[in-house]
Write a structure and sequence with these properties.
The chain is 17% helix and 35% strand. By secondary structure, it is an alpha/beta fold. InterPro entries: Glyas_Bleomycin-R_OHBP_Dase (IPR029068), PhnB-like (IPR028973). This is VOC family protein.
């Protein structure tokens, strides 16, 4: 069994994915626009056929999905979920945290904690909540 996360960006999927590519090295695997649907009825679901129907992108070993959704359905804010990003060391944690927080909101600046050398929390410019931690060596 596997759980995969789908982030609904309400019309901003392409910009969000481009941000993640530049900020943390995301790699796009699939990006399908509404106009690309083989089902003619699906091509008219969105008022903008260039919007993203489905995208899949990799960050490290994790695959995330994104969609601009169907405009007639309410697009809730992304709440109640936090993505945890483990950095290899303090330097990488600082770089990732700075990149993700650019244009976003920091809830907890990177700081030493009892569980790791650096940990911080932020919400990025697209409303996604992140925790950045330095990975602890296996004991």
């Amino acid at each position: 069994m596997q759980i995969q996360t789908i982030l609904a960006f309400g019309g901003h999927s392409e910009a969000a994915i481009q941000f993640y590519q530049a900020a943390i090295g995301a790699e796009v695997q699939v990006m399908l626009r509404w106009k690309d649907s083989p089902d003619p009825a699906m091509r008219t679901v969105s008022s903008d056929p260039e919007k993203i129907m489905h995208a899949s992108f990799r960050i490290g070993d994790t695959i995330l999905m994104a969609t601009d959704g169907i405009e007639t359905l309410a697009q809730p804010d992304i709440k109640g979920i936090t993505l945890n990003l483990e950095a290899r060391d303090d330097s990488e944690a600082r770089q990732l945290f700075a990149a993700l927080s650019n244009g976003g909101n920091v809830q907890m600046p990177l700081t030493k904690t009892f569980w790791t050398s650096l940990s911080g929390m932020l919400t990025d410019r697209f409303g996604v909540s992140w925790m950045v931690n330095v990975a602890q060596p296996a004991s």
